[in-house]
Specification:
homotrimer, mainly alpha, two-stranded parallel ribbon, cell membrane (chains A, B, C), transport (chains A, B, C), membrane (chains A, B, C)
């Protein structure tokens, strides 16, 4: 029986109501901060800032733009790999990210950036954090790709951003854990949030759309666009909100190296796992990124260059094996259908990242960091002025558990909400098919008239036709 | 009757002659400015500039590269959506942009950057402005996509850049209007220029190539590459030549927010306008960008974050409705064939941007901007030292009319020139077909042997067949 | 007879062993430099550096990211043009680049960055140089595309990086030649290295895979992604390690102009060379980049804007004619099979760049550069304090010969090694086919059951098969 997937009322309603709500809330709460306000010039004079270059804009904007590309092109195109769900992959990614960043500016603002006058003062750092925040929801989308309606995704994002802001506040501000690249805050939380939702929404008859669950040649090439932009810009992701100076510099080096090591190990495991050693695009598109995820927490630490290589080396081995053994196991046994394999790309490497961060922090010493360096890197100031590296390690570990807990509990709750039969999600037989929510190009409809299979065949594809003429 | 579309003489002739002309003119007029000359070090000492970072290069280069990507990949791939005109879309965009930036450096140089010694001194800001200038011509190309020859496009660009430099001079220097993101100077002018040309070149029998006027599945995904790079980098576009410090910072925030709001409203209108609420890729690919266009004039102003959201909200509603109702109406009634719907993406949002700019400027006050802030933001110095915000609003409005006038009159003149039967433009039946100007991969040539329209038709599209079995 | 292309043991073995070797060598040799170390703050105080902005990170990171995109997306997608080798094009590019940058950090480190304590201290400049270094090997890959196994590519890269580091040391440090954009060091060396290897590995029966040596419509569009990202970011490539301040600024302007001129001349020659003046995508995808290659050595020099236009103008004419006449000639007569035509895009323009650099250097004068400017631009300090511009020109020329010599001799040696029958390279009939080393989407595997050639052809296509099963 076909479900009612008509979203002509629900989607526009949700988009309009929420966008208008954003406008009202921004009107009440959001203002420019002193660096993006025309009074910056007075501020400069007051603070004796010698040059406009000291405006945080010039420290962070290039990194921001790289992160921005990762969110919209990176995540978006990585999800175009399905043969008939490329519109939904890149299109819905676009929709929920654009909504999420607005809601994130408010949620994170209330928790982190509320000024004495009750206003949220925003600058480029807020834009970066908003992008980070939606990344968690986009990861969650990866588990549900092709099985949910855009309305469900909007709900997933509304709650996802809310949960994110709270767990982020607990981990970064209350526990005072460091997580500049979000191994815990973004990847671990986002992955378990999405996996739990997918578990709640388990579809026993999903095999009915099995024929659409694969890729085609060109959709795999499209997905590589996403992979490469994520891979190339990940050093910016892990350094975007790191400390000015050596902090950003070191985060870039560590991430660059971890990612480089990830590529070789992914190719190795992918080849060894297949008959004739043939490579699998699924592994190349995903596991090569594990090093970036796993370096998110420790990116600013003095983990050393070879330490970064080791992190990338190990995380990609685990990630690739995850795609080979764990994903099928989870679907069969645990009833978790994970379309993009986020458990392998985000959950496990994210947890590794949290553990690496805890260990690296615990073993930090003045002999390596220098006295000032240690204080600056871990912000051992004010409330935590007398915290030691050892203790910091413990708090880092605690942060990891908070992230997991928020993912599991939050995912269960939101999954329950999304299970309601009101959201216009597709029937099992119509999953992974853009036909459900998109007007696909006319010409394809016209072909419905055709009845001659072989002809159609040749017509279908330029390549095919030509070859039969060579 | 097939037209003569042989451009073997005309295209090479135009390219060669004009490139050689560029070399000669650059030899006579163009030199490095003091920041890109080896004497910069002496200049630094003279001016007591403490660091190389104060070289404008470091303020503007990251933004320049983002703008550069928008011009070549953004505009280029946005125009690959047609099923058989992707080569022409991205290829001719490449050709005319590469010519246009050279001609723009000269034209804008003569009007804005002429030094006492009669030389044009160029630096990174000139490169940005040259990219801006060709954007106007690329917008115009959008209206003519698939219906003109590359030779015609070179002519369109030669005159388009010339007209641009003049109207820009009038609007920015004589009227002293502000337009950092070019809502008026770039988008309004470019759109009306292109629409008028398309009106003059009206093709009554264009329906003969109707079967090629649509997209196919993968060409729509290619077009999303263009959309997303335009969307992501638009904050750089509207801030690239804004004031150092808070100016660039604020322009980024305003544009980022306007674009975010545009996405939700576009999805809403697109869904509500279709049976079953299915989304239309044409809207997603275009109307989501309206907020960036509409924020071009006011990007630097203290429009407030929620003000930016409102601008994005409204402009995308109008833009999406334009695609649904206006474009068909314009083609039928006004005889304007607008391939890419630039009237909806650039003309209307551009005009909105001009109006928003005028209103925001007119309502600017010292209480909001601060005394210095107001002066800096609107450059109330020298000649216009005693201009008030109110008066500025009037001049902004005047600028908008100048842009429209130049677009309409210039388009009519250039359209007349392009109507001459000497440019090798395609016959109505051969529009939107790369076969005319490109060596398309072998296999497809063989398809041309067929005379059977339907056959031809179906072969056109890779993804055709699938649907007939779903 | 089909060859044994099973790489299930060899590829994983090479990847694992080499990655572990990297980890060990990095552990022994590589550390953070003073700008990426937590002790940066102490270093700042010692050196009286007023702001974190003076950290080289802020001078170079944006350029680094652009270069990074060129290496992975630019080179990668440029090599996706073949109809059935897109996976191999972008995938193997990814593999060897990720290995190459690690090996390059070590090799270049030992030659250029070895500290008194025997450690290689790395920062952002090292990352840029590592990317530059692998570019040489990726160019070489272009000549062998589709005809070698990934294991051979790993060997090609291991030796390629090693040779690169040595010739770079000789050219830049011993000869003290300038080559910021690597016309000689990167392009000339890489191209002759690859061409010689391809000559040694000559395949007389390659025509057996002729039907796979072309492109299809969408693979040509994919390749344009590579072309455009190379074209847009080339100014960053030629300026990334240029002098702070005017050096980087001027390098950007010169490269931007040379590339603009290249586009027009490429379109001209491409059109004039074809019946009916139809444009050839091969030329547009490649020869438009010749200007960037040819501007690599002289990018920092006072070559003047029109000089840059002339360089782009000439190099693209030669490059395009190369594709039309030289490539077929080389294959027939010289037995050099050059899949991507690197001789036209890198070898010839690279040599032109070296010559242009020598002439420009030789004709440099204090009247043009200013006394300080001349010294700074050519680093006439320490050992070469009393070198004149004339003499510098001679050393530049010498550098060009060193690059060519290393390419030819190195290529011959490595080609000999790669000729061994142990590397799992494909049979002549299986070249340019992803089937050999990749798990192509399921539907295609099933197609392999078929034995009927024509059928096979039709089945070659992912879309085809799946559809007939829906």
């Amino acid at each position: 029986m076909a479900k009612n997937t008509n979203i002509r009322i629900s989607l526009p309603a949700v988009c309009f109501v929420w966008q208008i709500a954003m406008i009202i809330l921004f009107g009440v709460f959001v203002r420019y901060n002193e660096e993006s306000d025309t009074r910056w010039i007075e501020h400069r004079r007051r603070k004796n800032i010698s040059t406009n270059l000291e405006n945080d804009f010039y420290y962070r904007y290039p990194s921001f733009q790289d992160v921005h590309v990762m969110i919209f092109v990176g995540f978006g195109f990585l999800m175009t790999f399905l043969k008939r769900y490329s519109f939904g992959g890149v299109g819905f990614n676009f929709l929920i990210a654009a909504f999420g960043i607005q809601w994130a500016l408010l949620m994170q603002g209330w928790f982190h950036y509320l000024d004495d006058d009750g206003k949220i003062k925003i600058g480029v750092e807020n834009l970066i954090n908003a992008d980070f925040c939606v990344a968690g929801c986009l990861i969650a989308y990866g588990a549900c790709l092709g099985k949910v309606s855009p309305v469900q995704l909007m709900v997933l994002t509304l709650f996802g951003v809310t949960l994110f802001a709270v767990e982020e506040y607990i981990i970064l501000e209350l526990l005072h854990a460091k997580d500049p690249g979000g191994s815990m805050v973004i990847h671990t939380f986002g992955a378990y949030y999405g996996l739990t939702i997918s578990w709640v929404l388990y579809r026993p008859m999903l095999s009915q759309s099995k024929h659409l669950q694969g890729s085609v040649y060109h959709s795999d090439v499209f997905a590589m666009i996403g992979t490469l932009f994520l891979w190339m810009y990940w050093p910016s992701f892990n350094s975007a909100i790191a400390d000015h100076g050596d902090g950003q510099h070191r985060a870039v080096i560590n991430t660059y190296l971890a990612l480089a090591a990830s590529v070789l190990t992914t190719f190795a495991i992918s080849s060894i796992s297949q008959k004739h050693g043939k490579l699998d695009m699924v592994h190349i598109q995903n596991a090569t990124l594990a090093g970036g995820v796993a370096m998110g927490t420790a990116s600013e630490f003095m983990i050393t260059p070879y330490g970064s290589l080791i992190v990338g080396f190990c995380s990609s081995i685990i990630s690739t094996f995850g795609y080979i053994f764990l994903t099928p196991f989870m679907e069969k046994t645990l009833k978790i259908q994970d379309t993009c394999g986020i458990h392998n790309l985000h959950a496990m490497p994210g947890v590794i990242g949290g553990i690496v961060g805890a260990i690296t922090a615990a073993s930090a010493s003045e002999s390596v960091y220098g006295q000032e360096g240690l204080i600056n890197t871990f912000d051992f100031k004010e409330a935590v002025a007398n915290r030691t590296a050892n203790i910091q390690g413990g708090y880092q570990a605690a942060g990891l558990f908070v992230a997991i807990a928020f993912g599991l509990v939050g995912g269960a709750l939101v999954g329950g909400i999304l299970k309601l039969p009101i959201w216009g999600d597709p029937a099992d037989a119509n999953c992974f098919d853009d036909e459900v929510y998109w007007e696909v190009p006319e010409d394809e409809d016209e072909n419905m008239l055709s009845s001659h299979p072989n002809m159609n065949h040749a017509r279908g594809m330029p390549d095919a036709y030509q070859r039969s003429h060579v």
